[in-house]
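User: Run a structure prediction on this.
Assistant: Running it now.
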Amino acid sequence: MTSKIRNGVFALFLAAIGLGLFSYPSGLSAQENEQSTNKAIQIVLEHKLRMQHILENDNVQVTVSNNTITLNGTVGTLEQKQQAEKDAHQVEESYKIVDNLVVKNPNATNQQVADNVIKEFQKHIFYSIFDWVVVEADSGNVTLKGWVYVPWHKPEFGQEAAKAAGVKKVINDITVLPISSTDDQIRAQAARLIYNDPAFENYADNTSPPIHIIVDNGRVILEGVVTSEFARGHAADLVQFGTDAISVNNQLVVAQ
């Protein structure tokens, strides 16, 4: 046993004993010592899962043997499944992790699952008017498409999607837009023109402004929902004639 593993096991024993969850007997054989080590790993991991409300009412079963931690049972979200596996690695990083956890299926339709994901996005301020993310759901498998202008927004959207009810898997196909001071200037120009225009006063007051401005190497794509054909055309005209955009692709949809 390496020094690193010995130290990890010793820390597990101290943690389990400190929690009052485990008593470490003396004078063990090698096989008994391995069994005691496995029991300590199991107890500490189960405690971590309970503290995070992942393990409740015996929904998750933890078994440890042959240098392997196996997780069985059901969890409420994909985020909980991912966290349980992460916790297992943290408890004993030298062990193999077998994650058989299943995310509960609330019998939601594909549209309901997609709506659940969008609701998670809307809770967070990182979803800006310069991002546009489309959610496609198929039997719990969620695919994210669209654009983000800040690189770390892409993994953040993936993490938020994993919190939504009914999501079993997240495929993150979001495109990260290139870093460009010219594109940033066009973004700022377009946002000022649209949201300072009297025709869009009500849009600017919205906690989640409905017109999104995507800029990719000088080319602008307008995404979102507006209330009239006039608003749809007017937003595109403001960007086309008031900014340095090379082109404007108007994908705005008029609300029915």
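The radius of gyration is 25 Å.
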